[in-house]
Amino acid sequence: MEPMIVIKDLKKVFSKKNVLQSVTCNLKAGEVFGLSGPQGAGKSILLRALAGLVKPTSGQIKIFGKDLAALTVEEKRKICYVASESVLYEYMTVAEIVKFSKGFYPNWDVQSCERYLKRFCLPPEEKIKDFSIGMKSQLALILALAARPSLLLLDEPFSGLDRYKRMDLVDLLLEDYLARKEHTVIIATDYLEEMEKLSDRMGFLQDGYLIRIAPTTQLRGKEKLIRVNFKRQPPAYLFEMPGVRRVEREGRRYYLFTVVDNFTEIYESCAKVPHVVLDVYHKNMARGFQDYSSDSPTIEIR
Predict the structure, then answer these.
(1) With the CA atoms of 243, 244, 245 and 248 taken in that order, what torsion angle do they form, in degrees rounded to the nearest 10?
(2) What's the confidence (pLDDT) of residue 294?
(3) Measured between alpha carbons, how far is 260 from 254 in angstroms, rounded to an integer?
(4) Residues 131 and 23 in one domain
(5) 299 pLDDT more than 70
(6) I want to staple 59 with a disulfide (CB 3.0 to 4.6 A). Which of 9, 33, 264, 270 is the partner?
(7) pLDDT interval class at 291 (50, 70, 90)
(8) Predicted confidence (pLDDT) at residue 69 exceeds the cutoff of 80
(9) What is the CA radius of gyration of the chain?
(10) The model's pTM
(11) Same structural domain for residues 120 and 237?
(12) Is the pLDDT of residue 297 over 60?
C-alpha cells in the first residue's frame, strides 16, 4: 500500500538559511507521528510546507498519492492545519465561527462539534476576543476535528493548556478522532509525555535535518533531557524536583536536566523562569547534543 504522505529530499531556504535540509519520511494512513527538536529546528516550517502554506525550495511532497501542488480543492479540504498561535476571527462568537467553518467542509460533524464545545466548556455565544490563549487553542482544535480531515497537522497543540486540559485533549484524540483508523496526524510539541501516549513514531529534527525516527515504544519511560539557557541564576528548587536525576551546567547559564519522571511538571517549572532557550529531547534521540551547546566545559551540579 502506498504511504499517505511521502516527503523526499525536502529543502527550504529562508534568507540564505537552510531551515529544512534533505528531509525524507513516509507516513501511512492511520499513523500518529510526533515531531520534537530544539527551537528553530524546522518543525513549524515542515508542518506549514505539508499544509501548502510554504513552498519548498526543492524536494517533493506527495499526499494521497499526488504531488501536493496537484491536489484538487476537495482533496485539500481533507487536510487541516492548526498553528501554534491560532488565528481566528475574534469579532465572531463561537457559534458564528462554527457556522462559518462548517461551510468549507462537506464532512463536518455537527454532533461531535457540539460535544467538544461542551467538553471544553466553550460557550457558543461568547466572543472569541474574550477567550484566553488556551481557550482559543482549544477552539481551533475543535474546529479542525469537527471537519473530520484525513490529515491533521498540529503545531504545539498543548501550549497554553493546564495539565487537566492537556489530559482531556489526549483522551479526546484517542477516544474519538484516532479511533477512526484512517486518520493520520502529525504533532509538533515539547510535551513528550503526552506524545508518548498518542504517537506511533517520533522524529527528531535538528538544524533542519530529520536525524532520527524511532517507534514510540522504544522511547516510553526513557530518560529525557531539558536544556535551558536562563536569563538569570535559576532557583535552587528546580535542581531538587522529584524526577530530576542529574543537572549539568554548560557555560554560565546553560543547564542540562536529565529527567526520569515528572517530566511535564519539571518542564513547566523551567519555563516559568525567564529564559532565552528551552529545548527538550529524548536522550537517545539527540545526536551530538553538546556539539552545538557550548564550548565551555560541562560541570555536574547534582
Answers:
(1) 170
(2) 37
(3) 20
(4) yes
(5) no
(6) 9
(7) very low
(8) yes
(9) 20
(10) 0.83
(11) no
(12) no
Last residue of a domain, one of 193, 218, 243: 218
Show Cβ contacts of residue 116 under 8 Å, excluding neighbours closer than 6 positions.
142, 145, 146, 172
29 in Cβ contact with 45 (< 8 Å): no
User: Which residue's C-alpha cell is 536536566?
Assistant: 257
Please say which residue of 183, 218, 253 terminates a domain.
Answer: 218
The span from the CA of 297 to the CA of 265, in Å, is: 28
**Are 136 and 230 in a shared domain?**
no
CB proximity list for 262: less than 8 A, separation 6 or greater:
241, 242, 243
3-state helix, strand, coil in the chain (%, to 5): 30, 30, 35
Residue-number span of the structural domain to which 250 is assigned? 224-300
d(CA 191, CA 87): 22
CB 203 within 8 A of CB 210: yes
Same domain, 108 and 237: no
pLDDT at 288: 40
Is there a single domain that holds both residue 263 and residue 234?
yes
Instruction: Determine contact, residues 190/202, Cβ cutoff 8 Å.
Output: no
Residue 244 contacts by C-beta under 8 Å, 6 or more apart in sequence?
Answer: 238, 257, 258, 259, 266, 302
pLDDT tens per residue, range 182-241: 789 999 988 888 888 889 999 999 889 998 898 988 887 778 889 999 999 899 999 999
Number of domains making up the chain:
2
* 120/247 same-domain check: no
Domain of residue 187, CATH code: 3.40.50.300
Q: Which of 202, 209, 180, 182 is nearest to 283 (CA)?
A: 202
